[in-house]
Amino acid sequence: MAELPSRKQQNQAFLQELEKQRLNKPCLRIIDLRGKVAGECQAYEFGGRVHYLDDRAYLLVKQLMSRFAGRYTVGVYETLLKALKQLNDPAPAPIARHAGLPFRQMDQSLQRSETRTVVSTAVQIRLQDMLYHGHTVDLSPHAIRVSCKRTFSLEPGDEVSVEFTELAEQSGLNELRHVIFHILKINHENSHTSLVLQRESAPNDEVTLWLSQWLGQYASARQQDVDNELFNLQAEFYQRIWLSRLASPLLWLDAAADATHILKLHLTAAAHRVLVASQLNESDWLAKLPLAASINQQSDMLCACDRQHSFSVSIAQQDAIQSLINWHIATANSQLLLLQPTSVAFDAHTLKRCIDTIETETGIADAASQLGQLNGLVTISDLSPAFSHMLPTQTVTAAQLSALQTPSLVQHQLPEPTTLRPCIQRDKARFFIRTPITVSAGELQWQLETQDVSADGLAIQLPADAPVMLNQRLHIDFSRWQTLTSKVKLDAIPYQIMNIRQWQGQQQLGLARIKNNCPESLNRFFDWVIAQNQQTLRHNNQDVITAAEGQLFSAALLPTLRSVPVFLGLDNAGGRQIQLIGKTAANQADREHDFWLALEQQSLRWAGLLKQATQQDGDSQTTTLYAYKTGQSWTLAIEQDFSQAREKALFIRRGLDASKFIAMHVTITALKGQEAEQEFDLQLRLQQFRTQRAHRVQALRQQLNQLVGMLELTDISALIRQIYSR
Q1: Among 379, 380, 268, CA closest to 618
Q2: Does residue 490 contact residue 477 with C-beta atoms inside 8 Å?
């Protein structure tokens, strides 16, 4: 019986030896992959026969032949076919909706050192003994973009030899048959590969001189590659939409060793709501903030304040943070504010251009000294919504927080707030004209004076509690002007409210006359009055100052912003989707890709919140987003999902025990499809590219017109961890 296993082993060894001999036999079959693979097949000779392989198959054959002592055998042939079958089997479809997310760097522009010209000319790319045929997409003296059939062996950083077959014959320059490039970027599709190749050259080498001269003769304006210009232009549209709706007040400071002086203040409608929530006037509210401590310590500060008290502490002091938050939760009508300081430095060229514009156009000579004093910025976020549905863990009185009392900021006069508008286009000039008028809104009337007047509009101030809203119609009587003319009636003239800005107990209203509802003689009267007197009137050039400063402040602000803008648009089926996520040097938005995919899957929830925001004054509202990751999936909730403190505490404690936990303060802003149309200078620049990239221009316009909303998210995970860590 013992002989049976031994005989079985002998049989197996005999069969294995036969199989080994079979696999080692020379193979007489030809490998021809033409039409069977996506890559380009070249002729290779081995085993005494000519085979047609793409680069992937050729590399596999080389590896397999090395195992068989450099011989082309049956084993090489069969193993290659099995490997190719496995490689060509389709992979399972990914679960995620997108292979990648639409991130866009918001604080940098794409710069090119050379102009690229759209040229299609044949090239051959050689990597060792592999050859690829392709055509250039665009060309510059030191870089080319090439399209070829699908490749598998080329990688970024590879050094390749490029032969410009057509140009070498045309020029007779042999150097064009062997030009060394490095692969800078590579992008694969199903059947094609796109390569960006770059080369270094010695000064005045023949290839650079010939290409520069040839491109100069060949190129025309329509053949310039402007993809980088369109890329930057797209980013500018989204930058302006974001900056015009920032949810945080921006305080630009002259930060000295012993005092902090607010020189500039930027407020959007959403940011002004942070001030209004305090039930204090703006100057009293700003006086309660720990601006000096925040700037001097360069530390994020948490401030809890109500009408009588203001306490503040650095977020690094955990015990004090716990006490501060407990006092805020237990105190009615208090606010919890996060102050984030940043040192700012303006680009010297942009600063000089801004100052020159202001001084030339307005004659304001002290602009240089004031802008030169700016060296600090503080952004403010109202975190009060994040600490609703919470119960204090201990009782803390104001007396116990006396050591955290915020020193009052003393400033006799605050600057009037403005918005970040890099471009302002006015159809008609405005002049400082003060004339008595009567403003009527239904049964309400106000007797007041104009602030400024143009041929088509005017500006007035109303009390902060006046019940007016955007696009509302008002009727105005010009009592003094009526005494100067009997040709037209200057009573009950219809105006529409175009913008509202609240400050220091007043509403600044910008009105436009509804010209279609006025007789032509009345419209001509206003044109005539302004034209007759404009030489003696003082021009209101605040638009020039605001636009020049807007360019300066926007450039300095963008790299410092820690919040993440998420733009929501419509897909082809009309559903909401993430259209773009803005990255900056400070927010590091692309750290958690799967989190953003989970956020996009909540499209119905964001659609509901956007609808609620549209119904509110200012088209925005705030909430808090909580998310944690277990395994490969994220669980998300917002503040409105909790009705009791226990529900919220249970969710957050689960999140803190998970592998990852994120808490975000969120401002939801509804956008109209015409937002981008108001950026007249960008629209003009976009129009100029229609002759070169008509389809790209059309696609960009369609994308911008499909914007429906924006989420601005500020990470507050550390604070939530602190309050729930005990």
Answers
A1: 268
A2: yes
Buried-state track 414-423, b at ≥16 Cβ within 10 A, e below 16: eeebbbbbbe
Strands 444-449 and 452-453 come out as: unpaired
Distance from the Cα of residue 487 to its chain's centroid:
54
**What does the DSSP 8-state code read for residue 583?**
E
Specify whether the CB–CB gap between 637 and 673 falls below 8 A: no
Nearest to 325 by CA among 639, 723, 625, 649: 723
Rounded to 5 degrees, φ, ψ at 576 are: -80, 140
Averaged pLDDT, groups of 10, the chain, 726 residues long: 63 74 87 89 89 90 87 88 76 44 86 83 92 92 92 92 92 90 90 91 81 80 76 92 92 73 86 78 84 85 91 87 90 91 87 84 68 85 87 86 84 80 85 93 93 93 90 93 88 92 86 93 90 87 87 91 92 83 89 88 83 71 92 91 89 92 92 83 88 86 90 91 75
258 token code pair: 């012993």
From residue 445, alpha-carbon distances to 250, 489, 565 in Å are 35, 19, 42
Q: Is 459 helix (H, G, I), strand (E, B) or coil?
A: strand
pTM for this predicted structure: 0.81
Q: How many CB atoms lie within 10 A of CB 376?
A: 24
CB of 554 closer than 8 Å to CB of 243? yes
CA 706 to chain centre: 16
